[in-house]
Structures are given as structure tokens and as C-alpha cells.
Task: inverse folding
């Protein structure tokens, strides 16, 4: 899935730091991706959960840290506040 590429990259770099992985997925427009899933709220929830893992997994030793832009963190928090929490990790 396109939104999982950052996490896959960070996980590979943690497991094999000497490698330079290339993560790629099928090129698809966002609207087409949502249509293929059939549920925009589900897609948003999955993306929120995956971004949480990009942020949290380095703290747990599963991935290398990555810088997340401030505007992405702001959108992430807004989606969490709006209830897109189906795929977030329990604390």
C-alpha cells in the first residue's frame, strides 16, 4: 500500500542498516485508491494508524526515526481528534 512505504523503508533500515532499500508500490491517484478500497474513512483510519507507527516504532526499536513535517503532524492530530483511531496502537 502506498502509505506504508515510509514505514517499510524505516523498518528495513533498522533491520539491515547497511542496505539502501527502495520501497515502491503501484502508482495510483489518491481518489482511485480510495475508490478501490470503497471507504474513505477506512483509508483515512489506516493512514493514521500507519503514521502513528512511523512515529512510535523507532521508540520501540522497530524502525529508524524519520522526520515528519509539522503540517503532517497537525493533520494527523486533527484526524485523531476526529475519531480516526480504528488502527492506532494501544498505549
Result:
Amino acid at each position: 500500500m502506498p502509505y506504508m512505504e515510509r514505514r517499510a523503508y524505516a523498518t528495513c533500515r533498522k533491520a539491515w542498516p547497511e542496505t539502501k532499500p527502495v520501497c515502491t508500490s503501484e502508482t495510483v491517484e489518491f481518489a482511485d485508491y480510495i475508490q478501490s478500497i470503497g471507504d474513505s474513512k477506512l483509508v483515512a483510519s489506516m493512514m493514521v494508524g500507519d503514521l502513528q507507527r512511523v512515529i512510535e516504532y523507532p521508540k520501540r526499536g522497530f524502525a529508524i526515526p524519520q522526520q515528519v513535517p509539522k503540517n503532517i503532524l497537525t493533520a494527523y492530530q486533527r484526524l485523531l481528534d476526529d475519531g480516526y483511531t480504528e488502527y492506532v496502537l494501544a498505549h
